[in-house]
Design a protein that fits this description.
globular; 279 residues; three-stranded antiparallel β-sheet; Rossmann fold; single chain; 25% strand; eight-stranded mixed β-sheet; 10 helices; alpha/beta
Length: 279
């Protein structure tokens, strides 16, 4: 973790600045957080694990390595390059998981990259063997970053906390948010029909909630279908929260030979009034 990144962090307990002290980060009130061997730090004391366990993120890593989401990375990079000028901008990835987007958007562009996630296992995977980005265990309800530090905040399928997003972004900073459309992983939804709480997906509430808080700069859809084999179909089934309450052993995935990626991508910004109200 670089000194530049540490200067952007804040203590989750007292909200004071953090500085390095040996192998730990400490604030003026002596709250202390140890830096792990891999270089990440846990800024959510007494945090419990949830559905988002190591196995889920390992399957996500396998899906990403297969290139299933490469067109999404490309689209995000295009939007960031279009709306976030300047040298070495600060990118914050909210709910970064195993760090795929943190590490891979805008390849070749110098950026200060910071990813945070509530899952300790995800952050461990993200920090493994990676020197170009920094990762912390952090909470959306209390993002452990200084106010006005980020040029761009990336939210890929993460629940939105627009008050915190507005606080963390610089004036004029850009939110890049992605969420699923009705066709997203539709082959898995079909395979699990009758076992899901809702057989159909409606994203209108997500769009309305975003529109109530941010001014849109750009909106686009990302839709494509790729071939998959049985192993990749199984990884896709294990990685998606859509099937969190489904017994995967009861699903017949043998007929899945392709998968559809269907997303909304929006770039937006928060007005001065919104930022002041939510600071």
């Amino acid at each position: 973790m670089t000194e530049e990144t540490i200067a952007l962090l804040r203590c989750p307990l007292c909200r004071g600045a953090l500085t390095r002290s040996g192998g730990s980060l400490v604030c003026a009130k002596r709250h202390c957080f140890d830096v792990a061997r891999q270089g990440h730090v846990n800024l959510v004391p007494a945090q419990r694990e949830s559905f988002y366990r190591r196995e889920l993120f390992e399957s996500r890593a396998a899906v990403f390595a297969a290139g299933v989401f490469a067109p999404v990375v490309k689209a995000i990079g295009e939007v960031i390059d279009r709306h976030v000028p300047g040298a070495r901008p600060v990118l914050v990835d909210a709910g970064c998981g195993e760090g795929y987007y943190t590490k891979n958007v805008c390849p070749g562009r110098a950026m200060e990259r910071i990813g945070f996630d509530l899952s300790k296992e995800a952050v461990k995977l993200a920090a493994r063997g990676q020197s170009g980005a920094s990762f912390v265990v952090g909470d959306l309800a209390n993002i452990p970053l200084q106010g006005g530090c980020a040029d761009v905040l990336l939210d890929v399928f993460t629940p939105a906390n627009y008050a915190e997003f507005a606080r963390v972004l610089k004036p004029g900073g850009v939110l890049v948010k992605l969420w699923p459309r009705s066709g997203y992983l539709c082959q898995l939804r079909w395979a699990a029909r009758g076992l899901l709480r809702h057989d159909a997906y409606d994203d209108s509430r997500v769009a309305d909630y975003l529109g109530a808080h941010a001014q849109m700069l750009e909106r686009r859809t990302i839709t494509y279908t790729l071939p998959v084999d049985a192993a990749l179909a199984a990884h896709l089934a294990r990685m998606t929260p859509m099937l969190a309450d489904v017994d995967l052993s009861a699903l017949d995935l043998g007929g899945i030979t392709e998968i559809t990626i269907d997303m909304n991508l929006v770039a937006g910004t928060f007005g001065a009034q919104e930022t002041e109200e939510q600071a």
